Amino acid sequence: AQRVTQPEKLLSVFKGAPVELKCNYSYSGSPELFWYVQYSRQRLQLLLRHISRESIKGFTADLNKGETSFHLKKPFAQEEDSAMYYCALSGTASKLTFGTGTRLQVML
Amino acid sequence: DAGVIQSPRHEVTEMGQEVTLRCKPISGHDYLFWYRQTMMRGLELLIYFNNNVPIDDSGMPEDRFSAKMPNASFSTLKIQPSEPRDSAVYFCASSPKRIFGTEAFFGQGTRLTVV
After folding, report:
1. Residue A45, CB half-sphere, CA atoms under 13 Å: how many?
2. For residue B41, what is the nearest residue in chain A, using CA coordinates?
3. Are the C-beta atoms of residues A62 and A74 closer than 8 Å to each other?
4. Per-residue pLDDT tens for A81-94?
5. Percent of chain B having pLDDT more than 90?
């Protein structure tokens, strides 16, 4: 079975503060992990994928197989980062499973 | 391409009525996913298809829910009879043949309210 856990429903930070959105997964094979974001009144869209090892809008995420984690980080939060963030895992037979999501609220 | 298209955008229905949600995936995509979004459970995978064939429907809550994909350009999710606890936003997503790191593209969702 594959499972994604996001322990925080809401994360509030001040503008300019560091952000870390937590994601842990459970999967016996080689995981394929993603972060998706949903801005207000917009579609859910891909933010980044672990194989690309890229930084998008200042966000990065590193796969830690030992801790089975894929936390999303940004050194300095911006107001426009306020959104709903979902961690996702593609596993057996390309089944795409999401966590429960974390709402990031950036305060001025 | 206009992306994944879902209809209707909003649906309000009375308990006991049949509800049909529709999805048109991006042309050429092999995979189609149906999700339900609620505050408590986040994004739950209900069912997904590969080349129009259902692969995993273990997330379908009960027999009241059914999904079909009669061809590569159309899928439906039906709830019969509907209940108030079915109220949620339902998303459809599609993706190309899945190689490592393939992105899924989402529709704008259907907000269902059962009263």
Report:
1. 9
2. A100
3. no
4. 999 999 999 988 88
5. 86
Q: Are the Cβ atoms of B45 and A96 closer than 8 angstroms? A: yes
In this structure, chain B runs to a length of: 115
Report how many helices (DSSP H) and strands (DSSP E) chain B contains, helices first. 0, 11
Task: End-to-end CA distance of chain B: give it in Å, rounded.
Answer: 35
The contacts of residue A41 (CB under 8 Å, 6+ apart) are none
Nearest by CB: A95 against B3, B56, B107: B56
> Distance of CA B50 to CAs A62, A65, B28, B54, Å?
29, 29, 12, 7
Instruction: For residue A97, give how far its alpha carbon lies from the nearest alpha carbon of chain B (Å).
Output: 6
Query: B1 is written with which tokens?
Result: 């391409």
Q: How many Cβ pairs within 8 Å bridge chains A and B?
A: 59
